[in-house]
Design brief:
This protein is an alpha+beta fold. It is built from 2 helices and 4 strands; from the N terminus they run ααββββ. The radius of gyration is 22 Å and the shape is rod-shaped.
């Protein structure tokens, strides 16, 4: 076996190992996802000035591609809530919905008071 062929075989095994590792994407557990969601909710409360008492207890749900957490907005709980989305592996987290009791106004939340 030539040196070149041996190097090609080794390179192929290394590339295959890297490809297999990139396919391995472990899912986070419910507790970790809830902690991430709570951090986003805390940041929302801090930035918006909307008190935590204006929201009901956290509701959580696991979907095939991630976690969804929701805090219903007490002034209009039937259609307004703060909703947070966490990806299955925990690498992406974002707000999915901001509370708005009057969606026709186009405002997603009450303005922050300075």
């Amino acid at each position: 076996m030539t040196r070149r062929r041996l190097l090609l075989i080794v390179a192929a095994f290394v590339a295959g190992g890297v490809a297999m590792l990139s396919l391995y994407d472990p899912a986070i557990d419910a507790q970790t996802a809830a902690a991430l969601a709570d951090r986003l909710a805390t940041e929302y409360h801090r930035q918006s000035g909307n008190p935590r008492a204006a929201f009901a207890a956290r509701e959580g749900r696991q979907w095939a591609d991630g976690w969804e957490f929701r805090w219903r907005y007490r002034p209009c709980p039937e259609f307004a809530s703060l909703r947070v989305w966490i990806s299955r592996n925990g690498r992406r987290a974002s707000y999915a919905e901001f509370p708005d009791c009057a969606p026709a106004t186009g405002l997603q939340a009450t303005p922050r008071k300075a």
